[in-house]
Design goal:
Belongs to the sodium:solute symporter (SSF) (TC 2.A.21) family. By secondary structure, the chain is mainly α. It has a single domain, classed as Sodium/glucose cotransporter, CATH 1.20.1730. The chain is built from 18 helices and no strands. Helix 5 packs parallel to helix 9, helix 5 runs antiparallel to helix 11 and helix 10 crosses helix 13. The longest helix is centred in the first third of the chain and has 50 residues. The chain is globular and about 70 Å long.
């Protein structure tokens, strides 16, 4: 491939894309008709707690392996190699911790919202503060996800409105059951999109062996870097240690995920859904990374980003699809459907989760005498509200840069202190409300400080380790300043010159983004314990014994 313009969508591509949208909406309508006799809050928010492990496992995988994965992970492998594959270890660690520690706790408490865990009952504003944090965080992340499908040249507002309308439709009518079964359908579409890219790349390059050899020659297969330096972006330790904690915070306390596995009919089914989720995550990340390796094999002599064919690294995979699959009507539409399916999955997950948090933690405490019918109407009204809110956030997020690291950084900065608050309350009886609130605030200040600092002063290449690319084989290089091997120096964001960087830029601000969550968790727990010890036991505090994890039961 030698660069240049690529084909646009054909009629058949639009047919495949629209078929995916109608299929997702149809599932919502089917679940609405099927469950019309059980139109109550428990059915809407938790599927009547009658779900089984397999569909929930696929839904867990699809909900966060979203458009970010479809677009961002292949670009990550193309730029930095296969170190992202090590996340397979992190996924296994995360699933075990969540299944054996957090799931039994939530089942004992019989909750709908994770923020119902009445551990710090004497200070109600504490819960209000981080419920609001959850809402802001979820809307912000969902605002970035719909942009994944806009890079193919489709109309941005058309995609955003379609995303919002379809999600509002099946979330409002079908509730959690519709979300879970739609996720199953969407995960199949996502995996099919990856397979199409890899299969076409193998045909073009002459087999999977040729792709592997090209990546070996290009230095893309050196995944295991055991350097303990916490400032290096990706090493074995940053991914396994930092990545595991980050994913624990996503799966163990995030309402979007928790709401799925507590919808299972038994504790055993809930645990099995998380262990089955490991297989789904492994399969998804493997196909995503190999898609990135396929992309490198094809463009090893002419990088589209450096050559100016795309405006951002996250547009590389859509560019590859339109470059190599346009001759096959409907196949580019399948890929866009894959990214779009990830978008629908993530947005619908959070709409349903936001409704659950709002109803259980804001509406019910104030309006205690609501009937099931009134709550059902409130659920549907809130689904519409949050759907349109996500559309608005998506428009704002159109100014964001690289989607994968941006999303994971946000996860770490916000969810790390929240995880610390849970761990503090679950494992230490002496923790009180003052300590928990103080630890949460200090943890957020610290993680936001380092996270925002890293955005203003991005780490230099010696910490991020971008791999070399080439434009030597491109047809159009006359407008470029370089035509041979060049590192990824053309960053998406402006990087201040070394002379303009403060001392913290190459130390504190260069901390690997995967450690943001671990940092927030440790700071929150440490400060919370110290402040609790200083202030003493809260006389109005009475810990729910079911909200404490008994360590000896795991020994």
């Amino acid at each position: 491939m030698h660069g240049g313009p690529v084909a646009s969508f054909s009629v058949w591509d639009y047919v495949v894309f629209v078929g995916t949208v109608l299929g997702a909406a149809g599932i919502g309508l089917f679940q609405a008709i099927r469950g019309r006799k059980n139109n109550n809050s428990g059915e809407f928010l938790l599927g009547g707690r009658q779900m089984t492990a397999v569909p929930v496992a696929m839904s867990l995988t699809a909900s966060f392996m979203s458009g970010i994965t479809v677009i961002g992970t292949p670009a990550e492998a193309y730029r930095f190699g296969t170190d992202y594959w090590i996340f397979a270890i992190s996924y296994a660690i995360m699933s075990i911790i969540t299944a054996e520690i957090f799931v039994p706790l939530f089942y004992r408490l019989g909750i709908t919202s994770t923020y119902e865990v009445r551990r710090y009952t004497s200070v109600r504003p504490t819960w209000v503060k981080y419920i609001v944090l959850f809402i802001i965080w979820t809307c912000h992340v969902n605002g970035s996800v719909p942009l994944c499908v806009s890079v193919t040249g489709m109309d941005l507002w058309g995609v955003l409105v379609a995303t919002g309308v379809v999600c509002i439709l099946y979330c409002t009518l079908g509730g959690l059951k519709a979300v879970i079964w739609t996720d199953v359908f969407q995960m199949v579409i996502m995996l099919a999109g990856f397979v199409a890219v890899i299969a076409r790349g193998a045909v073009i390059q002459g087999g999977l062996g040729k792709i592997w050899d090209d990546c070996y020659q290009g230095g893309r297969l050196s995944a295991f870097d055991f350097d303990p330096d916490p400032l290096k972006r990706h090493t074995f330790w940053t991914i396994v240690v930092g990545g595991s904690i980050m994913w624990v915070s996503i799966y163990s306390i995030n309402q979007s995920q928790v709401q799925r596995y507590i919808s299972c009919k038994t504790l055993t089914q809930a645990k099995l859904s998380l262990y089955g989720n490991i297989i789904g995550l492994w399969l998804t990340v493997s196909l995503a990374v190999f898609s990135g390796l396929t992309m490198y094999s094809i463009y090893k002599d002419c990088d589209p980003f450096t050559n100016g064919d795309v405006g951002a690294v996250d547009q590389l995979l859509p560019y590859l699809v339109m470059d190599t699959l346009a001759a096959y009507p409907g196949v580019p539409g399948l890929f866009v459907s894959a990214a779009y399916s990830g978008t629908l999955s993530t947005v619908s997950s959070s709409i349903n989760a936001l409704v659950a948090v709002t109803v259980e933690d804001f509406v019910r405490p104030v309006c205690k005498n609501l009937t099931d019918k009134q709550v059902s109407w409130i659920n549907m009204g809130l689904s519409v509200f949050f759907g349109f809110l996500c559309i608005g956030m998506a428009a704002i997020a159109s100014l964001m840069g690289s989607i994968l690291q941006a999303a994971l950084s946000i996860f770490g900065m916000i969810s790390g202190p929240l995880l610390g608050l849970y761990v503090l309350g679950m494992f230490w009886r002496t923790a009180n409300s003052t300590g928990g609130l103080t630890g949460l605030i200090v943890g957020l200040v610290i993680t936001l400080w380092v996270g925002i600092g890293a955005q203003i002063y991005p780490p230099l290449a010696d910490k991020t380790n971008p791999l070399p690319i080439s434009v030597a084989g491109c047809n159009r290089t006359q407008d470029l300043n370089y035509t041979t091997l060049a590192p990824w120096t053309r960053a998406v964001t402006l990087t201040p010159l070394p002379d303009d960087r403060p001392a913290l830029a190459d130390s504190w601000y260069s901390l690997s983004y995967l450690y943001f969550c671990l940092l927030g968790t440790l700071v929150t727990v440490t400060v919370g314990l110290v402040v609790s010890a200083i202030t003493g036991e809260d006389t109005s505090f009475s810990a729910n014994p079911n909200s404490i994890v008994h360590v000896m039961s795991y020994v």
